[in-house]
Specification:
This protein has about 290 residues and is α+β, with helices and mostly antiparallel strands. It folds into two domains: about 5-55, no CATH class; about 60-275. Helix content is about 55%, strand content about 10%. It contains seven helices and seven strands, in the order E-E-E-H-E-E-H-H-E-E-H-H-H-H. Strand 4 and strand 5 form a beta hairpin. Helix 2 packs antiparallel against helix 7. The longest helix has about 35 residues, at about 60-90. The radius of gyration is 21 Å and the shape is elongated. The two termini are about 15 Å apart.
Length: about 290
């Protein structure tokens, strides 16, 4: 029997979707986000009008559900703590040290969410050659796969959370000059925001299968990416407003900085809530039809 006809889609050197037209008449579609989030392939038989799914093995499904629960929960809590820190700062119900402490606690949850997002990529089931079923490899705590767009997106996100951690640690320092504040606190904040925006753009490329953003109102994954990217934009606005003017020692706009952080953090919390539903269903935790 002949080899299946294969078509690859994506952006640049990255492949985010593969379609196999098999000699038997089946059409099998692997999508990067669908596989790593839901552990599934899309399958359509000859003459089918409805696309079915073929899922990974129960071990992989359970692994994906656990990782998703940890990642989404971390972003929900981290975002809520960042919003609380901004509220304390904006409404004057606490001092700067209290706000910094709340932000730092939120940053730890963001670190956790970023790392577990990377683990989701590293430990997701992979497609086998020729459109075969998804295969689950052994557990990995780390891996270097820069030619995978999903790995690159989550790695940039994780690095961004670590850079934010530098910003949050430095915010505890006292007696800094304006130049030191801008170098030690504001600069890492800006770098972290840029990395968050870059990660979100790469996530859009993964889900849209092209360099330009797309609109997919019926895709839960698209909404997760879009809400998180809105949060990144608001974080960037907050960072720009948090620059300390050397001439006066005042922020560009304390109100914009606080409200940008508060609303951006709530976006990440909402993104975490949406992500909690982007997971394999329990009834799928059984061997699927072998495409």
């Amino acid at each position: 029997m002949g080899q299946p006809e294969e078509r690859a889609e994506g952006a640049g050197p990255f492949t985010t979707r593969r379609t196999w037209h098999r000699p038997e008449g089946d059409t099998v579609v692997w999508e990067s986000r669908l596989a790593r989030r839901l552990g599934a392939l899309a399958v359509r038989g000859p003459g089918d009008t409805v696309t079915r799914t073929s899922t990974a093995d129960p071990e992989a499904i359970g692994r994906l559900r656990r990782l998703n629960a940890v990642s989404s929960g971390a972003f929900v809590i981290g975002g809520a703590l960042f919003a609380l820190g901004a509220a304390v700062s904006q409404f004057g119900s606490g001092n700067a040290v209290e706000s910094a402490g709340i932000y730092f606690a939120g940053g730890l949850f963001f670190n956790t969410g970023g790392y577990v997002s990377l683990l989701q990529v590293l430990n997701a089931p992979r497609h086998s050659p020729g459109g075969g079923r998804l295969v689950t490899a052994g557990w990995r705590w780390w891996g270097y796969e820069p030619m995978r767009l999903d790995w690159l997106s989550t790695f940039v996100l994780f690095v961004g959370t670590l850079v934010f951690g530098v910003n949050l640690l430095d915010s505890f320092l006292q007696g800094l000059t304006v130049q030191q504040v801008n170098r030690l606190i504001w600069t890492p904040d800006m770098v972290g925001c840029v990395l968050f925006l870059a990660s979100g753009h790469l996530a859009f490329v993964e889900i849209c299968h092209r360099p330009r953003p797309c609109f997919r109102s019926r895709s839960l994954g698209w909404w997760v990416v879009a809400v998180n990217q809105l949060g990144s934009v608001l974080f960037m606005l907050s960072a720009l407003a948090a620059f300390t003017r050397p001439a006066t020692g005042d922020l560009v706009s304390a109100d914009v900085a606080n409200w940008g952080t508060l609303t951006g953090a709530l976006c990440f919390s909402l993104g975490g809530v949406l992500q909690a539903f982007e997971r394999p269903h329990r009834e799928r935790a059984k061997p699927g039809r072998n495409p």
